[in-house]
Design brief:
Layout: E1 2-3, H1 15-28, H2 38-58, E2 66-69, H3 72-83, E3 89-93, H4 98-108, E4 113-117, H5 127-133, E5 138-144, H6 156-165, E6 169-173, H7 185-188, E7 192-196, E8 208-212, H8 253-269, H9 271-289, E9 295-297, E10 310-314, H10 319-330, E11 332-333, E12 335-337, H11 342-347, E13 355-358, H12 366-381, H13 383-387
Bound molecules: pyridoxal-5'-phosphate.
Pyridoxal-5'-phosphate binds next to helix 3.
Length: 388
């Protein structure tokens, strides 16, 4: 199979991820932070190690500012529901994934007002529109770093300046950028960064993190989940200390250990190189499809302005039928439809059918891309026969 669905979750994973998934549970499967025996302390050491790696990678103020979550959605929910209360205003964009769109919608029913910034036909939002949307009660600006539909990278540093000038927090959804392009939360002015562990960071499903910048006052970020943390047990309120404040309950230790192994792998091969390879494979695919009759490419025209996601529509084909045929006839795995981002598809002129999305990964080879180009061209040449 040619796997071009890494934007959903990366596959395959490095061998050491599979090995750790098996061995960690068997040999170090105790509950970290709960007991003082050696197996529990060794599991706690692993959590610290992975936390340190993540903090260093994104330049978090300290490892304790890295909160383990189940995925990016979980991190986004912590940030959105923790930062907003009735009477607050939040700004987001039409390019958001449902993991931002739906929590914000849920907060509207609790007295939060929201403004959505439009995007141009390439998926970019305007910094001026963000500035114009700010109100005295704007508490949060939530922006996806790069679109999961067409990869468009948003101007985060400029939006951060607006957030700072106006006393709002900036939440960045880095689901499609963590591990593919460098992110320095201090330099870029990001207050809250939501990352998945299972996409470009190559960890297993069930891993992710919320990174908290040094400008965030813990009084402005309510807890969303309360429970045991292994310490301060006499109190019936959540401890103030990080990371325990936002990490109630038993961790996904196995997943976090395997994420740690994935990060070790990426340190060995080089994050920059890995990210660059994925983008190169995407550019190769786009180049091979450019100018082909019946194929519309929805990516930004400037390659450096998008991440490793290519979206197309094909005349005469429903995206879902196209994807199913690529799978059954050519063993090519891609994703089709609205990609949990319906308004982004609308902005790109691909609603309600959505797009056919290809997302190369670290292991994708030029030969696989060339086979995909041939298959896509072949199907695009025969829309009527293939759909009848
Ligand atoms: C832009 C974007 N945000 C959020 C998410 C949700 O990530 P997760 O599946 O880790 O919850 C995705 C998933 O594809 C995404 O592409």
């Amino acid at each position: 199979m040619i796997y071009l669905d890494n934007a959903a979750t990366s596959w395959p994973k490095p061998d050491r991820v599979y090995e750790t998934l098996g061995s960690f549970l068997q040999h170090s499967g105790a509950n970290p932070g709960r007991s003082g025996h050696r197996m529990a302390t060794s599991a706690a050491g692993m959590l610290d190690r992975t936390r340190n790696r993540i903090a260093a990678l994104f330049n978090a103020p300290g490892p304790e500012q890295v909160i383990f979550t189940l995925n990016a959605t979980d991190a986004l929910n912590f940030a959105i529901k923790g930062a907003l209360i009735a009477g607050d205003h939040a700004i987001s964009t039409v390019m958001e994934h449902n993991s931002v769109r739906r929590p914000l919608r849920a907060m509207e029913s609790q007295g939060v007002t929201t403004t959505k910034i439009p995007a141009d036909s390439e998926g970019f939002i305007s910094v001026d529109d963000v500035r114009a949307a700010v109100r005295p009660n704007t508490q949060l600006i939530a922006v996806t770093h790069a679109s999961n539909v067409n990869g468009a990278i948003q101007p985060i540093a400029e939006i951060a300046e607006i957030a700072r000038e106006n006393g709002a927090l900036l939440l960045v959804d880095a689901a499609q950028t963590a591990g593919t392009i460098p992110i320095d939360i201090a330099d870029m002015g990001i207050d809250l960064l939501a990352i998945p562990g299972h996409k470009a960071l190559m960890g297993p499903p069930g891993t992710g993190a919320l990174l908290i910048g040094d400008r965030v006052d813990l009084d402005d970020l309510n807890t969303v989940r309360e429970g045991g943390t292994g310490g301060n047990s006499e109190e019936d309120t959540q401890p103030r200390e990080l990371p325990a404040r936002y990490e109630a309950g038993t961790h996904n230790t196995v997943g976090i250990a395997a994420l740690g192994a994935a990060l070790d792998f990426l340190v060995d091969v080089g994050f920059e190189e890995a990210g660059h390879h994925e983008r190169e494979m995407t550019w190769r695919l786009i180049e091979g499809l450019t100018g082909q009759t019946g194929i519309t490419i929805l990516n930004p025209s400037e390659p450096s302005q998008h991440v490793a996601v290519a979206s197309i529509t094909v005349d005469g084909w429903e995206p879902s039928e196209f994807g199913t045929t690529l799978d059954s006839a050519f063993e090519i795995a891609c994703r089709t439809g609205l990609h949990c981002a319906p308004e982004a598809c609308q902005a790109l002129g691909a609603f309600p059918g959505g797009t056919v999305r290809f997302s190369p990964g670290y292991w994708t080879t030029p030969d696989e891309i060339d086979q995909a180009i041939e298959a896509i061209r072949e199907l695009a040449r025969s829309p009527l026969t293939m759909t009848s």
